[in-house]
């Protein structure tokens, strides 16, 4: 996260936001629209409230005994983690106004709302919606660390009343009296919305109602949500609105109708499996540095994807990558305002796109640049921007060679990459789950739960049960071994927290959670959890993955959070930025290690975060926590969708001897304290067994700061990166070095390709605060000044 980019976007965003919600303005795109006035009610969704409430459905997450505790809450014995909106007076009858009851379920218990502007790790909550139709007349106000979850077996319908105003049905960051969002959008972490229908079809089409307002940062997700809007001519409805923030993940979201299916801007984001139909503009990209769309299905929109915000001279969109998508019955797929120039705004990559009845594939300032057809056609590879193959930059706009995708990375029988949504075990009864608290773990943050958790994991595998981690902080003092066949799911991100002498030696890396041991085969599924450390733990490897698996083994919404929270002993008191480096604040050898034994590892929406600030401090005060390495990948057949790695001293991502990796969007930040000490003087000594970067060599050929690499690719084969943002905002906690448009000298190098690496394709690479965007075998290849785009510097297409 990065707090202070307000000035850069405020002008643009204010305009966009005003046009959107406060003062509905008919977008120019509407002029060419010809939507008929057919009602959305004619569509396939059943939005019959009476029918929904009478459906008796059960979902294990609702039915299981709720005994989670917020370990570091001021009163864990009374704080309620799991809240059913019915217990707060919601009726779900489709007639009664349930707004107040839903908001009471969210706010109950001294939680942190937007008016506080504060974050908190001590007030986690699941707010559960059983099947039913919940009528609302004003916004549902989301709080920090909140999971809004519906019954996946019978989706609850949140229905906006006919009098619903021009505002958000779910407001993820409510505007305050000072005219600004409550939270700094880049600081909003650890929240979800899943399994619900948002229905705006009773709201007059002329009212600018919005499904979800969602300015967020990392470790957030929206999953399995349908948004129903008016498709009447002149409709002002809008499905999803994001105006800023630092990342997040959206998957399996369907919208119908609306002026916009989604209207979104943020530094970087990953969205997968969006189905957008009957909107005037399917996706309007307000601004970004980078954005990765995987598996779009857009049908019957006037424009499928508009990336032309700002026009040719002031393109607000840095870059977009779209792969494995279907566009049907839209006059125009892409509307862009790109022009060949020394700037690289508006970079775009399209790969493996199927068009059916899309006459214009790409339109640039009104001109057809790539024709579509009235029938079926495919785009294998197309792009625009600056390319380096590997020398450059060369401006290009047109067909590009696409990589040959290894079959091992594909969904069986298709040319699309394999994907798998986070399992929710919707069909499993409560008896399929084994609660770790029932198995004797306390989760109170002080009891040593190592043995209880280990026993629970082994028992669950033998009984084919799914391990349920009730909310809690589970202190462990040695490695937890996760056997093949395990399935683990958390209740609002419970924490496994490593503590003690086992993890105290900086020269002896010890896994905290080990997924299989070398030579093991089989699969696991792991979701909705956090792995952390407590106090001085420089030997801790938070997750070590050794399992040789088949497709489908992986983790979803599992995060590393190192320092910066109550109970970590790594907060403002212990690790102020003014302290000199000491073992007290050395808190991990590595966040995650996918070893050379591992294969078929699927990561979706994971964030490996060494804290840069204290989440439980009212002022979000910065802290200095020292960790060694981020994500090291040495295995084969790896999917990394929507992953981020931040603030590790030696590197964020390193692919070393890896084979068959598909990744996008990947995002990194360099530690804010660097170069004091820099990467070469990191408290973590270089380990040749781990092929750590040798900074004395890497930095010798360039002047300037020698800070941690964001991405290093060493001796790897077949690596495809669909969107990367490698950011270095700080120099000893000052941001002068990353001020736009230069000098971009927080550090010299951030992306290093070395050794025998081959078949490497990098699309829409953006960097911040970095002098050389790419180095190959130590030679600087792409100076930032040749690729100035938005706030970030961007290259559309790099291949070796
Ligand atoms: C986010 O956008 C809003 C609306 O324009 C603006 O008020 C706010 O300052 C922005 N925040 C950040 C962190 O960019
Ligand atoms: C296409 O979308 C319009 C709204 O833009 C809608 O009225 C019409 O019914 C849709 N057509 C089909 C075939 O779905
Ligand atoms: C590129 O983006 C920046 C920041 O949004 C803007 O100031 C500049 O005018 C844009 N350049 C072009 C050529 O669009
Ligand atoms: C280097 O890493 C290897 C492999 O993880 C480990 O066995 C060894 O103890 C480490 N050595 C030092 C000095 O860190
Ligand atoms: C980088 O160096 C290695 C030797 O370590 C060599 O095999 C490879 O071809 C070089 N790559 C490039 C792009 O020069």
Describe this structure as you would to a colleague:
By secondary structure, the chain is mainly beta. The chain folds into 2 domains: 75-399, Single-stranded right-handed beta-helix, Pectin lyase-like (Pectate Lyase C-like, 3 Solenoid); 500-799, Single-stranded right-handed beta-helix, Pectin lyase-like (Pectate Lyase C-like). The protein is 7% helix and 42% strand. A 10-stranded mixed beta sheet has the order 26-29-31-33-35-37-39-42-45-46. The chain has a 5-stranded parallel beta barrel with strand order 15-16-18-19-17. A two-stranded parallel ribbon has the order 41-44. A hairpin with a 5-residue loop joins strand 20 (367-388) and strand 21 (394-399). It is globular and about 65 Å long. The protein starts with 5 loop residues before the first helix and ends with a strand. 63% of the residues are buried. Mean pLDDT is 93; it is low at 1-55. The protein binds 2-acetamido-2-deoxy-beta-D-glucopyranose (NAG) (5 copies).
